[in-house]
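Please check this:
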Amino acid sequence: MNSVSKTLFIPLYGKSQVSRKGIILSDPAAEEIWKAESFPVHGKLRSKWLAYNMAMRARVFDDWTEAMLRAKNDALVLHIGCGLDSRCLRVKAPYINWIDADFPEVLSLRKKYYEESAVYHMMAVDASKAEQIERLPDSETAVVLLEGISMYLTNGQMIRLFQALERKYSHLHILVDAYTEFGAKASKYKNPVNEVGVTELYGMDDVQSLLHDTKIRLKGEHSFTPKHLVNELQPSERAFFRVIFSEKLYRKICRLYELETVS
């Protein structure tokens, strides 16, 4: 695996640790895979605060996906950069076609733990190569999850990815997290991904500028740390978590955007 692929172990570790505590996110698959893979974690990767943050981000994506499927039950779900995530199991709303996409070497590992079915498939897709979007299944509507990948793509690559998705699907609902430009610069050498060899990160300050020549528009922003999830922490942990992941400070570093196509 290359350094970017190895970053999948960071959220996997966080979700496994939080799931064991019985808070925020129930993820038996993460617990099982983490125990089996035994990827070495050092430094910032072992932070319980990072684990809480990773689990909350995943839960926000889960809840949004659940809501989208309840409203758009004929939609294709497309999770680009799925890693070893078990969202396809955690989301309980029924779906007719779910595609988990990532690098071939990631899917090779993933297939040790997940089985394809009539409604669930895994496909090799490199998000930096927008032309690969064309090989994905057709659908009128697509619910697209871009969790934890935009920071590894240049703005030009993100533009081409959005354009390719818009050409492929008439109706798009997209949830994407992104560093700001300040966040990318600040995180370049002080980020847990450095532990697996990643030093080049990218940010975006104006997501709407990346949507030109498409019908995709910014619908709104979501919180990475909603109050009801923070409240699942122990009372002694909540105050410190709120300080290090305060909404005001966090938005200077990371944003969580909901996008959709408009007529």
Remarks:
- The first helix runs from residue 3 to 6.
- The first strand starts at residue 76 and ends at 80.
- The two ends are 41 Å apart (CA to CA).
- The mean pLDDT is 90.
